[in-house]
Design a protein that fits this description.
Elements: E1 2-7, E2 24-33, E3 64-75, E4 78-81, E5 90-91, E6 99-107, E7 116-120, E8 125-130, E9 142-143, E10 145-148, E11 153-160, E12 167-171, H1 174-177, E13 182-185, E14 196-197
Parallel strand pairs: 3-6
Antiparallel strand pairs: 1-2, 3-4, 5-14, 6-11, 7-10, 7-12, 8-9, 8-11, 12-13
């Protein structure tokens, strides 16, 4: 099995073209090959037919009990969110368990600036707006990444069901997340004003 790249990119800031109209390579490039070896395994991890799964629930924007805004930007050569570096001991967001929140992600680097693929741990995000418009059909379902193009903005709904934190969210560009373009969220049983010290240390 191969993973292939189909995007044309010569600039570290972003792929060629636009978020709405990307430029594809004339021929896909294979860049990673998986070779499966060893004896055949008979124990299946598949779900047994008839097993009751948790139903998928489409979130309603009217359910949101809070709106949070996170701006991804470069300041004095450093990658930050809301002018902050990653602090593993401080929760920038403390959602209440059992609630839905609306999170707005903004790219503050300008239209010619770096793109930021925003990755949220714990909860799949239901993307509802990208640059003021309804997202493409393929992006209207639960996703773990939403892409901010230069100067772009995205809105997502997140449902914090029952898992306590801490967890993180960050730009998924390696050079950015490794330079601490990341914040901590720590879901709580009771409503709490953010920021707060985390309740439990990261494992």
């Amino acid at each position: 099995m191969f993973l292939e790249n189909i995007l044309y990119q010569v600039d570290g800031r972003k792929p060629a073209g636009s978020l709405a109209k990307p430029v594809h390579l004339e021929q896909a490039q294979k860049w990673l090959k998986f070779v499966v070896e060893g004896p055949v395994q008979r124990d299946s991890a598949a779900v047994v037919p008839g097993t009751l799964l948790r139903p998928h629930r489409v979130l309603d924007p009217a359910e949101a009990v809070a709106t949070r805004v996170f701006e991804f930007q470069r300041r004095n050569g450093a990658w930050q969110i809301n002018k902050q570096y990653f602090d593993p001991a401080t929760a920038a967001a403390t959602p209440t368990l059992g609630t839905v929140e609306r999170w707005i992600f903004r790219n503050g680097t300008g239209t010619a600036g770096w793109w930021h693929p925003v990755h949220v741990h714990l909860s799949g995000q239901q993307i509802i707006r990208v640059n003021g418009a309804e997202p493409a059909l393929a992006d209207r379902f639960k996703s773990d990444v939403v892409i901010l193009d230069g100067g772009g903005e995205a809105e997502s709904l997140l449902h914090f069901r029952s898992f306590r934190g801490p967890f993180v969210f960050h730009c998924h560009t390696l050079e950015h997340e490794d330079m601490r373009m990341m914040l901590t969220m720590d879901p709580r049983v009771t409503a709490t004003v953010s920021p707060q010290p985390i309740q439990a240390a990261f494992p």
